[in-house]
Amino acid sequence: MLLAGDIGGTKTILALFSLDSGTLDPLEEASYPSSEYGSLEEIVADFIGTAGYSIGRASIGIAGPVSQGRVATTNLPWDITESGLARTLNIPEVKFLNDLKAIAYAVPHLKSSDLHTLNTGEGKDHESLAVIAPGTGLGEAFLTWSNDRYLAHPSEGGHADFAPATPEERELLGYLQERSDSVSVESVCSGRGIPNIYSFFKDTGGFEESVWLKESLADVTDPTPVIINAATDKDRRCLLCKATLEMFVSILGSEAGNLALKVMATGGVFVGGGIPPRIVPTLEAGSFMKAFTGKGRMQTIMKKIPVHVILNPRTALIGAACYGLGLDKC
Q: What's this model's pTM, rounded to 2 decimal places?
């Protein structure tokens, strides 16, 4: 059996696939709240014990840089190794890959029903592809064509410096620089970043925080879902939250365009992560593509790049399974 995993700061998804069948249909699958466990070994042990199968190989996508089989997870206090997981749980072969690399491996296998197109563009076969995924953090990756397949490449682009594109975003940068030595793109373009934008508008933008919203935020450990829901609620929409979400979308569009330029992703840009599928109407409203294409002399090229939102929440898991089953030869 192949154990495939998608390890994120918020949740961990594990699934079992048959190595003999080579298909992407899981035999067992389960989701766990990552922060409630002290280690990945604990989660995997629970899953294996419940499933009752013998594992021959593990392929696991993890949010964090992978180096020589070791990962210090970006948004979890875990330091894990391939050899340690293999030894502790008696799994003959364990491979870690960056979670965005896992998503990238899945991209060529996605169906039209897994995607929502923001820009049809003029993409061609075998041209470079880019993946940007705001979830708990911000992940970035890309794919290049080599001989008969796509090769996936990870990056830590989400930790690059935030480059404001508007006067208001410059004010946001100054506001955050007063509170932190470093302001990365992830600081404003992720689940962790949305509360930073919210605080900026609340403190400096002339928006009043309503009593009901303040009470809602006081009862949660993660304010991002509350802010997004308040921004998109047609019956009780919050202007403070609406401004927050609109700036987030504009920053995401700008960074997606930056990534597309850096890797010449003329084959297409795929917007993944947990947040975009929940805000498709806001992404369609115009500010995302305006920021994406607003690259001066490169505007003509940018308008031709296809842009898709990945709707399938299991994409990283599918990519890890592709890698483990040898289906990464797309």
A: 0.90
